[in-house]
């Protein structure tokens, strides 16, 4: 098909039935530069990276997550520090290919530490249907806008 003769449609937020939990349309839909295909490609690439690091972490430390959210992973830990979870080499450096703490691209940040009893309370409140990876942030406002 010739791109110059391909029909195009411009959809407004009112025409697209994509709404948030509060019923309001996503603000990004009103932008002319909104590209859902690029967003999907970025998220898919991020998921692939997380899965690769999960596999490397499992191989290096025999550590498996107990919950996985969109952008959060919950792992059992012997202590409250995120450093207690991350595998290290005998020299004390992070194991290659696993998660590393930091602010640079490809690194992860600590979103919170909770006890198993805290998780159990949430399971009981929600009838056993709950993903604690979406609730674990220490600061409840930390995920606003995501």
Explain this structure.
By secondary structure, the protein is mostly helical. It has a domain at 27-109. It is 25% helix and 3% strand. It is built from two helices and two strands, in the order H-E-E-H. The chain has a two-stranded antiparallel ribbon. Strand 1 (67-68) and strand 2 form a beta hairpin. It is flat and about 50 Å long. The model is unreliable at 6-17 and 141-146 (pLDDT under 50).
Helix fraction, binned, reads: 10-25%
Kindly state the number of beta strands.
Answer: 2
Mean pLDDT: 79
Order of helices and strands: HEEH
Q: What class would the helix/strand composition place it in? A: mainly alpha
Shape: flat
Q: How far do the termini sit from each other? A: 38 Å
Total count of helical runs of at least 4 residues: 2
- What fraction of residues sit in β-strands? under 5%
Q: In terms of per-residue confidence, which ranges show pLDDT below 50 for 5 or more consecutive residues?
A: 6-17, 141-146
Rg (C-alpha, Å) = 20 Å
The major sheet is characterized as:
2 strands, antiparallel
Across the major sheet, the strand order is 1-2
């Amino acid at each position: 098909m010739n791109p110059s003769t391909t029909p195009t449609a411009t959809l407004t937020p009112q025409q697209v039935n994509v709404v948030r939990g509060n019923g309001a349309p996503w603000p990004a839909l009103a932008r002319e530069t909104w590209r859902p295909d690029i967003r999907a490609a970025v998220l898919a690439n991020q998921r692939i990276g997380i899965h690769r690091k999960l596999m490397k972490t499992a191989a290096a430390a025999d550590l498996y997550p107990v919950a996985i959210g969109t952008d959060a992973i919950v792992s059992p830990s012997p202590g409250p520090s995120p450093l207690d979870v991350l595998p290290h080499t005998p020299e004390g450096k992070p194991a290659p290919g696993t998660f590393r703490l930091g602010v640079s691209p490809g690194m992860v940040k600590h979103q919170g530490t909770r006890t198993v009893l805290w998780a159990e309370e949430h399971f009981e409140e929600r009838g056993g249907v709950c993903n604690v990876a979406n609730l674990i942030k220490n600061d409840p406002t930390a995920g606003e806008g995501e």
